[in-house]
Amino acid sequence: xxxxxxxxxxWFGYPLELDDRLRLISEAGxxxxxxxxxxxxAYEPPIPKKVETAAKHGLGVENAHLQFAxxxxxxxxxxxxxxxxxxxxxxxAEAGIYGVPRLVVHLTRTAAPPVFNELGFxxxxxMAEAAEKAGVTLAFENLKVPERLYEFVAAAGTDRIGVCFDxxxxxxxxxxxxxxxxxxxxxxxVHLHDNDGTRxxxxxxxxxxxxxxxxxxxxxxxxxxxxxxxxxxxxxTDKFGKSLLPREDDPYFGMGxxxxxxxxFEAHKRLTESSL
Length: 276
Fold this sequence. Notes:
Layout lengths: L2 E7 L8 H10 L4 E6 L9 H10 L3 E7 L12 H19 L4 E4 L12 H17 L2 E5 L4 H11 L5 E5 H7 L5 H4 L4 E5 L20 H10 L5 E4 L26 H16 L4
Parallel strand pairs: 1-2, 1-8, 2-3, 3-4, 4-5, 5-6, 6-7
């Protein structure tokens, strides 16, 4: 079922407090938001405040992105992997408490993560069990190593997990694959952003070389029923507070957050109306 609700990531690159970001997102016309679900981050308040702030500005929570800084440790033996798994399970439980329906999960970080193994698989399945108890759906995202998603889903089955289709990652990391089509029955979340095929730029749809007519057709042919969510980011500051160097090819140079969000909202409208 097609859901035209305009949804936007709560972090979009501008170094503003969450309350200001969500207010601007709402004022731009978006009605749902993707939250960052982590223990701590430079521009993020404690978890209960996140959902409260979204509601304050009339925004539903489409999904939240589970933290991923230490995710490679889940595939490695030792204390750190166990500690991180326990931390992730706690965050999943909190999602259930605060009514977040879906969490987007990374299986790996970096282009050369540890190999797929039974220890890592068992830890992720413990997370899936926790999600089932909490009434939360886990949606595993396609990343720099697409094979990991394919082998994980093959091992886990499709009864207890879903997939987050990231259009930008598909385009620049594995254009030979059609991730949305391959996992059509279990697409539970989407990240829509654009790039030129050479790097993960997180541009506004239309400011890159993705074939959006193809993406739109694949989404409509899938079982996905949620909002078509933008995960765009003007490269000024990352969500951890690190300032990023400006790029010569930055299409949003000098653009304030209001103009940026207005442009994003219009792109979302064109995408859902099939005019992009």
